[in-house]
Amino acid sequence: MKIFLAPRSNETSYKNFLSTIESGVDYSIIEPYLEDQGKKLLGDGGKTFAWGNKETKKSSWDKMEDGDLILFYKGREGDEREGKLVYAGRLLYKQHSRDLGVSLWPPKTGEEPWTCIFFLKDLKPVYIPITELADLAGYSRNFIVQGFMPVSDEGVQAILSKFGSVDGFVNHYIAGEDNTLAPSDLEEKNEIAAHAEAEMLLLKIGRMLGYDTYSPNKSNEAYGEKLQNYISLNELPTRFIGGDITKLVSQIDVIWFKDEVPKCAFEVEHSTKISSGLQRLCQLKPLSTKLFIIASSKDYYLYEKYINADPYYKYKEDFRFREYKQLENFFKAVSEFSAINDTFLK
Description:
The chain is an alpha+beta fold. It folds into two domains: 3-172, ph1033 like fold; 187-345, no CATH class. 35% of the residues lie in helices and 23% in strands. It contains 13 helices and 14 strands. The protein has helices at residues 11-22, 27-30, 36-42, 58-62, 98-104, 130-137, 153-163, 166-172, 191-208, 246-249, 274-282, 300-307, 324-345; strands at 3-7, 25-26, 47-53, 69-74, 84-96, 116-129, 149-150, 212-214, 221-222, 225-226, 254-258, 261-268, 290-295, 319-323. The strands form three sheets. The chain has a seven-stranded mixed beta sheet, sandwiched between helices. The protein has a five-stranded mixed beta sheet with strand order 8-11-12-13-14, with helices on both faces. Strands 9-10 form a two-stranded antiparallel ribbon. A hairpin with a 2-residue loop joins β11 and β12 (261-268). The longest helix is centred in the last third of the chain and has 22 residues, at 324-345.
C-alpha cells in the first residue's frame, strides 16, 4: 500500500479538478480511448473520476498500484495558516495515453497534455492540515505539495501505526458539510462524560461483535443508560488470569472475552493517566491480548512519550493508540453492519 499526494493549486489543475474530480466525467467521453481493461473496470455507464500528470511525473505514476491512496492538496487560502488535503480516493485504473488525456483535459496552445491518467474509486472529501501529514511523515513543518509525489515509506508506516489502517486514517479526517474536519463528539465533552461514553461505545461494539464484555464501572451512565446493561460478565474471568495481576486487570476499563480468554483490552485515558493505563494493560501481554489506549487526539504526544520510555518501549508493538474520532467511526461502521446483517439474515 502506497500513498500519493496530488496538488490542485494552480489555475489549470484547479479547473481540471472541478471538471473531472468534483463533477466527474461521463463514460461516453472516455470510452473511445480506453483499453479493454479500462472498459471492463469503468464501463458501468455512470460517472468516472479521473486525474492525471504530465510526462515529467511518469516515474511516480509508474509506482501506482491498484488500491493505493491518493490525497489531493489545496494551498493556503485567505486567512488560513496552511494548506490542506481536501479529497481522498483509491486507485481503480490507470492508463498512459495522450489521446485519453486530451479528451479529458484539452491543453492550451503550446501546453503539454496530461498523459499519465488514473481513475479513482471511494472518493471522499477530507480535511487534513498539511502540517499533520508532515509530522506523521517526518517532513519539515514548512512542507507543501509542489508536484505529484509518493509519501515516504516511513510516513506510510507511521500512518498505519497510528490509525491502524489507511481507511482508519481517511475516516478520521472525513470533512463535514462545511468542508472542515467533522468534530468528535467525545473531544468536546468533559473528562468524566467522555470517559463514560467511550466505555459505552466499547461495550456496545464488543456485544455487536459477539464478545463477552467486562468493565468494573457498572454504575456509570452514558447516553441515558447504565453501562451495566451492556456488560455480560459481572465478574472478571480468572481461568487464564490469576495471581498478583488479578487486581490490576480487574481495573481495566473494558475487556472483550472469548471463552474466558481476554482478546482485546481498552483503557480510556486522559493526559498523565495514560501511564497508569499502560501499566494495567501490560499485565495481559503474556496472553497475546490486543491492548488499546483510547484518548483525545491531543494526548497522542503523551502516549508517544510513555510508550517509548522504560518499561513499555520493549512492548510497544503490542499496544495501539486510538483517538476518540476513530472509536466513534468504528462504532458507526459496526452498527451499520449489524443492522444490515440482521436484516439480511432475518
